[in-house]
Design brief:
Structural class: mainly alpha
Shape: globular
Oligomer: single chain
Largest sheet: none
Strand content: under 5%
Number of helices: 11
Distance between the termini: 67 Å
């Protein structure tokens, strides 16, 4: 199916799902007032990440693409240091790098697959990193669900624009329900992702993106009967360990800052 059609249908379903939640919680009236630069940027970067990922996925293996896209935590942390001057010590840098190494253990990418489609994968990683950083600049008074609906609007509009140069085909019932399920999980994931990045420092949240591979291993076994090899199990251990260690270091840092005596006026 054409990329634009897939994005449009899934996006429209997402708009309906999040919109229903907004009506239920009586927050619809807040949507027009929430329009702002950071929300627009976040929505555009989200659409960029989805469009480049879906396009690349049609032309390269999932393992190679995943290895590239999961570089987004590194990109995000580096951008946070440059743009926001967020302090990141060598221990947390090391933990993020260890998590990336664990990712490579799991997906075992083939360097020969790095071509123009891999560059689109890198674009997806960059879009995801910029999207999450833009989330930090959004007014905290705006409800998380309202931010999520703007991302759904952007995805739907991007799919429509891409579809202007495509020939759409009728969706089979099975594919229609696949997209409905994908839209549901995308709606939930978008809400939780926005909530996470508004609550905790970027350098703490970003390593846990590697946990995607843990869920991938579980889904592969349950749905397809594929059990990971020893390299994949070792990589999964590194991914989980790096995320837990990063959380531990953040706890230690907050404890240290809280214990510092304040200067007398």
């Amino acid at each position: 199916y054409p990329v634009g059609e897939v994005m449009f249908v899934r996006g429209l379903m997402t708009v309906l799902m999040i919109g229903t939640a907004l009506v239920w919680l009586r927050q619809v009236h807040l949507v027009p007032r929430a329009m702002s630069g950071p929300i627009v940027l976040r929505s555009l970067f989200d659409a960029m990440a989805s469009a480049t990922f879906i396009t690349a996925l049609g032309h390269m293996g999932i393992a190679e693409l995943s290895a590239i896209v999961l570089a987004s935590p590194l990109i995000m942390t580096m951008l946070a240091v440059v743009l926001f001057k967020e302090p990141v010590g060598w221990r947390r840098w090391s933990a993020i790098i260890v998590g990336l190494v664990g990712t490579l253990f799991v997906v075992k990418p083939n360097p020969a697959a790095l071509d123009v489609w891999a560059m689109l994968g890198l674009g997806a990683a960059l879009g995801a990193a910029c999207r999450d950083l833009a989330t930090l600049r959004i007014d905290r008074a705006i409800p998380t669900l309202v931010i999520s609906i703007f991302s759904a609007f952007a995805l739907t509009a991007t799919g429509f624009l891409l579809g202007l140069n495509e020939i759409w085909v009728s969706l089979a019932p099975k594919e229609f329900w696949f997209l409905a399920v994908a839209a549901f999980f995308y709606s939930v994931a978008t809400y939780l992702l926005v909530l996470a990045f508004r609550s905790v420092a970027v350098s703490v949240v970003s390593p846990f993106r590697y946990a995607l591979l843990i869920w991938t291993v579980i889904a592969g076994y349950v749905v397809f009967g594929d059990f990971p090899d020893n390299w994949s199990l070792a990589g999964a251990a590194l991914i989980v360990g790096s995320g837990l260690y990063t959380l531990h270091r953040e706890t230690v840092r907050h404890r240290f800052l809280s214990a510092k005596p304040t200067s007398e006026p």
